[in-house]
Amino acid sequence: MRLLLTGASGYLGGFIAARARAEGTALTVLGRKAPDSGGWLRFDLDAPPSALPAADALVHAAFSHVPGRYRGGEGDDADGFVRRNRDGSARLFDAAQAAGIGRVVFLSSRAVYGPRPPGTRLREDDALAPDTLYGRMKADTEADLHARATPGFTPSSLRITGVYGQAVPGTPHKWADLLSDFAAGRPIAPRIATEVHGADMAAGLWAVLTAPPGQVTGRAFNLSDLMLDRHELLSLYADLHGIPHAPPDRAPGPPPNEMACDSLAALGWQPGGLPRLRATLAALPPGG
Q1: What Pfam families has UniProt attached to this entry (predicted)?
Q2: FRET pair for 155, CA 20 to 30 Å: which of 57, 80, 212, 251?
């Protein structure tokens, strides 16, 4: 497969690039900086893209935001946030169609659903009601991409939850500060969230990329694995590394809504669950 990838230097993109290389894919990275190796084409969400090279598929993982923030990632520049992410994505999709690229997968978010009553299981055919600019931008970009579906063009989206893990051992990960604070005995605020390992996220993407077009054209797929409270996360981490501190209390109130992932499972996707979480934490050094 000849694959184009935006956002390869980002956290999610790192997992996707690692999977692509493991699959022996001919990978070309679209971004502002050339990678250490492999194909590269200059690309910026805030500028018209160059003509894209011939490829079998494009994965769009690039996202322009205030560092460290997704929801609320617009900061004090809402117009620029929309221009770069929604409008920049539309220009990229135009370029992909002009180049005759047959598949495009967009990395969306569970934020497209917006708030729902406690206990509601989120399904892909639910009406979308995002309550943040981030969620609205993702929903608008999904809708634009899916509306382009033709017999020769297969667009799909992945509605991804929180992602954990390291694409390459020794690289930064989302829990580094949390684990460091916990190991040092600093106070930890209770929190519960839905999570999936980055390698499982990349495996879900691969399932969509390689599925028959009739199974994925114009469709969004939920992608999530664990409902994870910091109490359970840090209890497990403490047990694995002999850390003497007590974990925080369990998060108060109802947990986030779970996403139903039956559609992705029907393509053969199976996440790693608690065994993968345990193995990931065991491989991290004490202190994160």
Answers
A1: Epimerase
A2: 80
| Homologous superfamily of the 2-169+195-225+258-265 domain (CATH) | NAD(P)-binding Rossmann-like Domain (3.40.50.720)
pLDDT single digits (tens) 128-173: 999 999 999 999 999 999 999 999 999 999 999 999 999 988 888 9
Q: Burial level of 37, CB count in 10 A (0-12/13-18/19+)?
A: exposed
CA distance 122 to 116: 9
CB burial of residue 170 (10 Å; 0-12, 13-18, 19+) = exposed
Ramachandran area for residue 183 (φ above 0: left; ψ -120 to 50: alpha; else beta): alpha
What is the DSSP secondary-structure string of 129-154? ---SHHHHHHHHHHHHHHTT-BTTBE
Are the CB atoms for 31 and 6 separated by under 8 Å?
A: yes
